[in-house]
Inverse folding.
């Protein structure tokens, strides 16, 4: 069970949150020049790292605010919690 | 005690009884990517809770052991069978939680492709290209569960 430190509410159990997958995905554009291939990559293709993963989380049954978590998919260890508008944290070499 | 396999659409939990008497049950996924290769407590609580809710008397039995594995889930909850962008490399994956039941047919279909160079008519719609063309098999959000 993850203990997630919500930036607004403090540490809460994982069951209060929802993970919405990979973060920092930019919508391609302008729309009339996006190929089907590019659009498919935007909609469906995701990273699947064994290691550090940047993902969006929602404090679903708490403050309902969104934020980013950089988490190790091997250990579930939360490395950094940061705002939606913050850049992706640098990956340190293991 | 239980001479059928029971499965609940609303909880996704299935349960049967082995010949030795133990109950075997499962269901549920972690809701974030994981290579931890262990059961996640939040998911285990969900599954065990669903068993106790469906069969209150089972709430009294003890949990002997539990396990978890990597489940490959695709956006439209359907497998990927056929060629990949890399010549000579074929895929047969994304079976989600349905692979145990369906893979004999899945193996037959991919073998047909390998032997003839063309997808079997049943497997053709399961090509990776469906995400580019938009011809998805199953709208995952509209289905209760993968299979
Ligand atoms: Zn919160």
């Amino acid at each position: 069970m993850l203990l997630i430190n919500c930036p607004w509410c403090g540490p809460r159990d994982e069951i209060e949150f929802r993970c919405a997958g990979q973060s920092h995905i930019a919508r391609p554009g302008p729309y009339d020049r996006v190929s089907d291939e590019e659009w498919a990559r935007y909609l469906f293709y995701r990273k699947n790292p064994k290691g550090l993963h940047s993902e969006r989380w929602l404090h679903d049954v708490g403050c309902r605010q969104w934020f980013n978590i950089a988490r190790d998919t091997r250990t579930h260890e939360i490395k950094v919690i940061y705002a939606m508008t913050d850049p992706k944290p640098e990956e340190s070499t293991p | 005690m239980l001479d059928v396999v029971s499965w609940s659409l609303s909880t996704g939990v299935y349960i049967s009884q082995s010949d030795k008497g133990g109950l075997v049950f499962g269901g549920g996924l972690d809701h974030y990517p994981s290579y931890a290769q262990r059961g996640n407590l939040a998911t285990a609580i969900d599954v065990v809770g669903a068993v106790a809710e469906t069969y209150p008397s089972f709430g009294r039995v003890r949990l002997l052991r539990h396990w978890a594995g990597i489940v490959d889930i695709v956006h439209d909850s359907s497998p990927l069978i056929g060629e990949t962008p890399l010549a000579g490399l074929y895929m047969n994956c994304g079976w989600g939680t349905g692979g145990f039941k369906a893979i004999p047919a899945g193996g037959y279909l991919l073998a047909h492709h390998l032997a003839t160079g063309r997808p079997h008519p049943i497997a053709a719609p399961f090509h990776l290209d469906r995400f580019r063309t938009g011809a998805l098999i199953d709208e995952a959000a509209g289905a209760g569960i993968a299979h």
Summary: The longest strand of chain B covers residues 14-17. The beta strands of chain B are 6-7, 14-17, 23-26, 80-83, 90-93. Chain B has a mean pLDDT of 88.
